[in-house]
Protein: Phosphoribosylformylglycinamidine cyclo-ligase
Amino acid sequence: MTHVGSSAYAAAGVDIEAGDRAVQLMKSSVKRTERSEVIGGIGGFAGLFDASKIARYQHPVLATSTDGVGTKVAIAQAMDIHDTIGFDLMGMLVDDLVVTGAEPLWVTDYIACGKVVPERIAGIVKGIADACVVAGCSLLGGEVAEHPGLLGPDEYDVAGATTGVVEHDAMLGPDLVRPGDVAVAMASSGLHSNGYSLVRKVLLADAGWSLDRDVPELGRRLGEELLEPTKVYALDALALIEAHDVHAMSHITGGGLANNLARVLPAGVTVTIERSSWQPPAIFGLVQQVGGIAENDIEATLNQGVGMIALLPAEQADAAVALLNGRGVSSWICGHVEAAAEPAGEQGTVELVGAHG
Structure:
């Protein structure tokens, strides 16, 4: 059998040396995320995590989540800014995990690209590592795959997975939600990482706007707004869970507020959300206006300025808002839970009422 050397592999479009250089550049970023439980370092075949922490739980339940950034990567590529997209990946991963009550322990990532440009890959990983620090978890491992012919030289996609742990008796979920609970909203940092196929079609393709267009309503260039990193709530959400009797949490991602909130409701309840309790950031109204999109459609696609919702007893709501605001997470009471007039289906319902303030 003829051995295919690295020069032949390079001729096919795969640069092993560039991959090695990327690993060297990202080592310091990955090192910053290491929790005390991490064994070994970057470069092994698998990441190792000391599970004795989990063994100390009475009844540990492992939680896992996997996701990607989606078409927001097209904005990063067009603007040639790659060190913030990691927050979008991490937001989609750890904040889906934390709504169960689980503490994220580690993350692994996967970057597929048409050509390994070491500085670009290192920038992507730096963003993931920065977000890991914010979320309190380790970047335990990952993979960079070069796919010439499948992706263009400047194209890439980013995905990942996370694992966490929660005590069985501390899990959040629909079975804890009761009539009389209130909904506390946590502000999003913008579009987060959802609905970009719609946003790109409306603003870039159909309206023909450029990413360097100054948009007065936004107070900055369009590209800067579209690349705004996703807010990572993990440590703030865990602090809220530790301090208060949180019954359920919903991460508001693709599908909008009502659809995501309904996922954590038991049958027989309705959550009424008061639109008047907040004003969505300008980008949401801009997409709706320029695209001529009906309110129901925009609310079923974008987060409308709410990134996370917690359901908890009414008497704890003010203190919960104060805690979150004190941690720099803009929060407010946005609605309440009541018994459904006509219970139907396997989960509760959400009703958005009124107009935005």
About this structure: The chain is about 35% helix and 25% strand. The first helix runs from residue 6 to 11. The longest strand covers residues 156-167. The chain has two domains: 13-170, 174-353.
